[in-house]
Amino acid sequence: MSSVSPTSGNSSITDLLNALGGSSGSSGGTSGTTNSGGTSSSGGSLSAPGIGSGLDVSAIVTALVNAKKAPAQDQIDSKTNQINGQLNALGSLNSALTALQAALAKLTSASTFSSFDANVADDTIASATTLTNAVPGSYDLKVTQLATAQKRTSDVTPSDQAIGGGTLTIGVGSNSFNVSVADTATLADVASAINKASNNPGVVATVINGDNGTQLQLSSSKTGVANAFTISANATSSDGLQALATQLGTPGQNEAQDAKLSIDNIPVTSASNNVTGALNGVTIALTKTGDTTLNITQDNSAAQTAIQGFVDAYNTYNSAVQSLDYNPSTKAVGALFGDTTMESVERSVSSVLSGAVKGNSIGLLSSLGITRNPDGTLTAPDSDKLTAALNSDPNAVQDLFAGPNGYATKLNAALDTYTSSTGIIASRTSSLNDTLTQLGTQQTALNNRMQQYQDQLQKQYTNLDTLMSSLNNTSSYLTTALAQLQNSGNSK
């Protein structure tokens, strides 16, 4: 442990004793012989190699602590690096599987294989949108009347004239509400009371200030006969309020009416110009009267995009697997080579995709031109085969992926075993993090032990350095004293 040689120390003391002996046995002015310590009686000085040379205590202590700490530290560092590597690899695997599941979700969505296009030949007459339950077909569309909302307007009245008090009763269909009108109320006050009524079933009051004066207009908030309104004043109301009710209760030129149309000569009536229910899964928005053609066609673009997206996501997953496990092309070994979770994932995915879908007329991915390459990737679907299958039997294509035994359904369920919050990857990750915590505890304990060891060494070597400094001072003193004694003996 010490850089000071005990032998050197003993030799120096021996040299000092020999020097003392030599000086006492010599005659004045006679040179003595060289002793074993290298000190000459004729030289007039003594040397003591190794004594008082100075110790680098800090360097010695650091080296000893590092040497003692190294084996345990290397073990902790190696295990920590290994676990961090596994955590990063499992995170990459989970990301690849999650991305694959996102592509599978599009394949299992009902809208992917039930998407339709609606086209109206004359889009100034109508437009149309579709839902997933639409049915392809071509229809003759004839619009003979648009739906309108009821509007009625009062006679002209000065804006500041009081109408008179009472109660108005306004009804829409089977619903009605009462409006209390003060004796000093103007048309603006009446309009405000109508609009603010909490139980108003659908009437809007507007004051129009024209060139000839002020008029009150009532409008139904919705089109159609069923949404027309009625208005009356009770018997105790003022003459002015009763007259206003009569004016607004009298039919005029803007009465409510339903939309009237026919689809392939089948008459249809609708309270709204947005006609729903006439054709399953189709909403027809009417804009003017006239004759045109409505075409509903299957839209395969969403299905084609989703299937290609699945192939792309699988190939990304395959690339991730090769980088994490084993790349047969480069023969490179990844961080999860031989890992049981990695092997289990590969078996699960391969098991689903290598089998046929029972009860499905298409049966295999290869029937759509999707095959596996030697490097494990999937080829893009054959456009002609896929289009033909979607056009001839879209339900079969949907069942191939999204049915109970479909590829997307079964593969997604298999991957959930690994990617869910309680899945295998989450469990592995939690366990590895627990091990990291334990390694952190071990590191703290090791640091504490080494600190104690360092403190102990620091004290020991500081004491040694102090002792050596004292011996060095003693040696210098004795050397000087002996030199003086020798000089004194020579002078006699």
Give a description of the structure:
The protein has 492 residues and is α+β, with helices and mostly antiparallel strands. The protein has four domains: 81 residues; 153 residues, no CATH class; 72 residues, no CATH class; 99 residues, Immunoglobulin-like, CATH 2.60.40. 48% of the residues lie in helices and 18% in strands. Strands 1-14-3-10-11 form a five-stranded antiparallel sheet, with no helix packed on it. A three-stranded antiparallel sheet has the order 2-13-12, with no helix packed on it. A three-stranded antiparallel sheet has the order 4-8-7, with helices on one face. The N terminus is likely disordered.
User: Beta-strand level of the residues, as a percent range?
Assistant: 15-25%
- What is the 3D form? elongated
Overall tally of domains: 4
- Radius of gyration from the alpha-carbon trace, in angstroms: 51 Å
Question: In which order are the strands of the major sheet placed?
Answer: 1-14-3-10-11
Low-confidence stretches: 1-53
**Structure summary, number of beta strands:** 16
Helix/strand class: alpha+beta
* Number of helical elements: 11
Order of helices and strands: HHHEEEEEEHEEEHEEEEEHEEHHHHH
Helix content: 40-55%
What is the average of the pLDDT values?
87
Largest sheet, in brief, is: 5 strands, antiparallel
Distance between the termini: 49 Å
A few lines on this structure:
By secondary structure, this protein is an alpha+beta fold.
Topology:
Blueprint: H1 6-25, H2 57-108, H3 110-113, E1 116-120, E2 126-130, E3 137-145, E4 151-153, E5 166-172, E6 175-181, H4 187-196, E7 203-210, E8 213-220, E9 229-233, H5 239-249, E10 259-263, E11 266-270, E12 274-279, E13 282-286, E14 290-298, H6 301-324, E15 326-327, E16 332-333, H7 340-354, H8 383-392, H9 394-402, H10 407-419, H11 424-491
Antiparallel strand pairs: 1-14, 2-13, 3-10, 3-14, 4-8, 5-6, 5-9, 7-8, 10-11, 12-13, 15-16
